[in-house]
Amino acid sequence: xxxxxxxxxxxxxxxxxxxxxxxxxxxxxxxxxxxxxxxxxxxxxxxxxxxxxxxxxxxxxxxxxxxxxxxxxxxxxxxxxxxxxxxxxxxxxxxxxxxxxxxxxxxxxxxxxxxxxxxxxxxxxxxxxxxxxxxxxxxxxxxxxxxxxxxxxxxxxxxxxxxxxxxxxxxxxxxxxxxxxxxxxxxxxxxxxxxxxxxxxxxxxxxxxxxxxxxxxxxxxxxxxxxxxxxxxxxxxxxxxxxxxxxxxxxxxxxxxxxxxxxxxxxxxxxxxxxxxxxxxxxxxxxxx
Length: 289
What we know:
By secondary structure, the chain is mainly alpha-helical. It has two domains: about 10-85, DNA polymerase, domain 1 (Orthogonal Bundle), CATH 1.10.150; about 105-275, Orthogonal Bundle (hpI Integrase, Chain A). Helix content is about 60%, strand content about 5%. The chain has 13 helices and three strands, in the order αααααααβββαααααα. It has a three-stranded antiparallel β-sheet, with no helix packed on it. The chain is elongated, with a radius of gyration of 28 Å. It starts with 9 loop residues before the first helix and ends in a 5-residue tail after the last helix.
């Protein structure tokens, strides 16, 4: 003989009856199972409130349930609460932990530039050096016109984008001008001042950067021109730049985006602190003094 199924708590039995015929049998079985676990954890009550739901969701997180499983439990319990007339309050579904965006350190960028100097052609060298010095977005680099560079004073006008940037003018140092001007003169002669400085598409630009990043041994699957921009922002912040200075240096129209970068950096610093702390090292050695 098979085992008799356990009786459902009365409130869960009522929930099952109310959604019967409104959802598929598969969904009903899953939602009822979640509601049973919830009631068994919180305890049987006449009424459940937002504090019970929050407590149960916190329990799932502490127990190490995967994110998708916790989301499924949340929406099953949302159906339970709404069907039974309970108040969920402002408890929301678990948010996924977003992976930290990839950033190249400027030691890695220097390795990239060393390879570019040895192996790249004039256009590729100019493109990657401008990215490294200015921190410009890929779309800004590919939107540059020949006339945006002034060899008389070594300034480059970087156009705004739809991502909250403003026009800015960057003074290029001699080492960057030396990499830019051979290509700039060739484009001026061949296409004129109103031509695009870098006549390639976004995919081609990505492939160019990826090729030299692999040669430099720094390639990562999610790396790209923005990895250079993030790295520059990080280095400037470590050097003492405030939010306003970062905003001006990298061309944001508001301080919102540099604040996000600084937040990511603060998380990184916290992790480095935990790893470097002597008590943390002692813990990894098994508690030896």
